[in-house]
Design a protein that fits this description.
Organism: Fructobacillus durionis
GO molecular function: proton-transporting ATP synthase activity, rotational mechanism; proton-transporting ATPase activity, rotational mechanism
Number of strands: 0
Structural class: mainly alpha
Main location: membrane
Radius of gyration: 64 Å
Protein name: ATP synthase subunit b
Low-confidence stretches: none
Pfam families: ATP-synt_B
Order of helices and strands: HHH
């Protein structure tokens, strides 16, 4: 056993060179055959992941921009709707005021017309009353005097009578 230990400890230089050359040759072959394609695939995968992340970030920024744009449009739409409602309210109020003014004018005209009609009816009633009183007075006077008065005399008598009544 002691001999085997000594042999393992002292390896001939040729064997050592052979092992080192074999190891280096194996490393070169592994680099060409395994590590090269493996690192190429890993680099491609890393590039694809980075590209996907960049695309996702860009899409996220685009989505945020789109959300902001939609919010602005919604706000503008709300403002336009509020303005339209305010304009409609003002228009309705103006139209209401106009209708009320027209109705008030019409009522005032009707009131004026009614007053004029009332004055006219009063005058007509007074004239009719005067005529009736005159006819009645003439009839009474005719019966009292037993003679017929002329129309002018009758009117003069009536006017004098009415003047007396108006003074009293």
């Amino acid at each position: 056993m002691a001999q085997t230990l000594l042999m393992t400890k002292a390896m001939p230089l040729g064997d050592m060179v052979f092992i080192i050359v074999a190891f280096l040759l194996l490393m070169v072959i592994l680099k060409k055959v395994a590590y090269g394609p493996l690192t190429k695939v890993l680099d491609q995968r890393a590039d694809k992941i980075n590209k996907d992340l960049d695309d996702a970030q860009q899409k996220s920024e685009d989505a945020a921009s789109l959300v902001e744009q939609r919010q602005k449009e919604l706000s503008e739409s709300k403002n336009q709707a509020s303005q339209m409602i305010e304009t409609a309210k003002k228009s309705a109020q103006a139209q209401s005021d106009s209708l009320i003014q027209a109705a008030n004018t019409q009522v005032a005209g009707m009131r004026q017309s009614a007053q004029e009609d009332a004055v006219q009816m009063k005058n007509d009633a007074m004239n009719t009353a005067k005529k009736d009183v005159a006819d009645l007075s003439v009839t009474i006077a005719s019966k009292l005097i037993q003679k017929e008065l002329s129309a002018d005399d009758q009117r003069a008598l009536i006017d004098a009578y009415l003047a007396e009544l108006g003074q009293q």
